[in-house]
Amino acid sequence: MRLIATLLCAAALSLGTTPLAFAAAPANGVDYLTLPEVQNTDAGAKVEVTEFFAYYCPHCDRFEPLLAAWVKQHGADIVFKRVHVTGGPSVLPQQKLFYTLEALGLLEQYHVKAFNAMHIERLRLATDQAVFDWAAKAGIDRAKFVDAYNSFGLAAKLRRADRMMGDYRVDSWPMLAVGGHYLTSPTQAGEGDPSAQTEAAQQQAALKVLDFLVAKAKAEKK
After folding, report:
1. Number of domains in the chain
2. Which of 69, 73, 119, 205 is the most exposed place for a label (fewest CB within 10 A)?
3. Can you tell me the mean pLDDT for 64-83?
């Protein structure tokens, strides 16, 4: 136990936090959940952090800037990935939008713009044509976008996203998986922190739990 504690403290310091931040350590089953089976990750010596999200989700939209800043801060220690969740016919075009941007190498440039299209411009993006029109208006080559959108490779990504949701037991979002083993979210972290009465406070609580889980997962790699 002393060795694990030492490793956790060392990992915390490498993440730019201090051991004092874990004085009241997040609790399993309260602030975060542990998957019964560890999922395979390909992060090497780093820790994989995966966000399950949806473009239509207002909570995901509000969480995005905070999470992006957190990822930038911890980029040397983590491999960050996103999975757009599956849904009904109106969600599928948004999911395909995400994976098309990813396939074309345009995700970082257009990810926030896709959120803004839905939550600021109030575009539904619920049909293929609506997504094509938005992409073209945003400055993306329409023909290349449509080809990637309808490709076999993209269909494989959709199947993988569906499989990952089942493997990680994701039933709400935004949800964050750490090291293929732990899950947390603003809602989950908020339940463990009675002082987190607002959504913004719950988001901050989730980032603190993420700090703890990344340090924990990193220590367990030793």
Report:
1. 1
2. 69
3. 97
